[in-house]
Amino acid sequence: MKVKNQEEKEKKDKKEKKIEKKKRGEIGYREMLLIADLYDLRYITIEQINRYYHKKEDGTNAKINYTYKKMKQLKDFGYVESVSYPINMRYQKLYYLTDEGINKALDLRDEDLFRLDLEGNLRELYRTAAENLLDEKAIRHQLFLNEVYFALLETLGRGKFEWKDTAKSIIEFQNIKIMPDATAKIGYINFLIEADNGTYSAKRLKQRMKVYNKFLEKSKELDEEYKVLFICNTENRKNKDKRIDSIIDVATAEVTVCADGIDFYVMSLENFRSSFYEYIYEVDIEGEKSRNEMIAERIANQMGKRYEVEYRYETLYGSGTASTAIVDASHIYTVEDLTLGNIKNYQRFREAVKISRYGQITPIAIVSSEERAKIEAEKLSYTPSVLFYLLDSERIIGVLPDEVIEKDLN
Question: Domains in the chain, start-ordered, CATH in brackets?
């Protein structure tokens, strides 16, 4: 009996050594990246793995069967487990780390496993596999948040930003506590990220905006800069703009500190993907013009040619009623870009609309299309002094309840 048990033990040891040898020799660089990322991402779909971790040199993705094979390998090594989860009317496999996988992830990330808490006690910093699990509703939110991470990864590249999950993003300062869903730190700028899956009630949304307003006001005393990215999941929504518009309206009313020049963006994931690098990230690079400035310069040149009068455009920093203005001897045209959902632009635009009733100021809003111009005009009760610059056709129009008026500046 002892001989048999000894043989079984030797077989088991031999099998474990074989697995360890395989682990060392067959886990590729991409699988290592996946394991390291998955600690923060918590869950990942097979499609996300295929799209973001198994991309070939020519830019195409590997065959899905290859991705399944690689994930089976990680599962056999004991690094991941999987669960079926309903996504878009069908069940898909989600992968998550085991405790052994978490140990591997922390090793690959070279992170401290312990820290001192405020009382000076040594505490574990990382989550166990059980603590990393989420309920069904939270999983849906996490998968959407992960898409924000992947959008940044594709836009900026690995190593160009620091991603912090909710636990590492908590900020407590002067009796104010905020808990963003994540933080993307790029240089000295901290982008506080809120991933909206449409679950916030109007009351909760208002409360959250008030907390952000208090924090952003106090953040002026801190050494680092803070901006907010409120990114909305518009997938499978019939009216994609309705949710975004409602959040913009609440933020415009509640986050009043934005008028002092603080950036607070509310946008769809699609808009974030297409606009972040060129119109949000690059604007902070010295010498780069914002879309506001570029369009204001273009309009000023067109007006100058048409009316044979010198028009100049000016960029206004800090607080004020405009981000950019076109000026001549007797009139001011304020220009605000509303395509990025930047709350400070909305606040300045609406302030300019109020002042325009007294003459000498004409507010111009940059919007994506004529349809968006009509939506914004309705919000303003069709104020006749307001003009809209349409990005898709490079036209300027005025909008009345039953008429769109072309303003030809060419």
Answer: 14-115 (1.10.10.10), 134-286 (3.40.1350), 291-406 (3.40.1350)
pLDDT at 117: 46
CA separation for the pair 384, 380 (Å, rounded): 10
Helix (H, G, I), strand (E, B) or coil at 225: strand
DSSP class of residue 127 equals P
Order of strands, sheet of 264-268, starting from the edge strand that comes earlier in the sequence = 162-165, 182-186, 189-196, 225-232, 264-268
- Strands (DSSP E) contained in 48-205 are 80-87, 90-97, 114-116, 122-124, 162-165, 171-173, 176-178, 182-186, 189-196
In the numeric block, which tokens belong to residue 90? 């069908």
pLDDT per position as a tens digit, 334-379? 999 999 999 999 999 998 999 888 878 899 999 999 999 999 999 9
Q: Got the DSSP string for 258-275? A: GGGT--EEEEEHHHHHHH
Asked if 95 contacts 46 with a C-beta cutoff of 8 angstroms, the reply is yes
Helix (H, G, I), strand (E, B) or coil at 328: coil
Distance CA 102, CA 105 (A): 5
* Residues 157-180 pLDDT 10s: 998 999 998 888 888 888 889 999
Give the whole-angstrom CA distance, residue 297 versus residue 389. Answer: 13
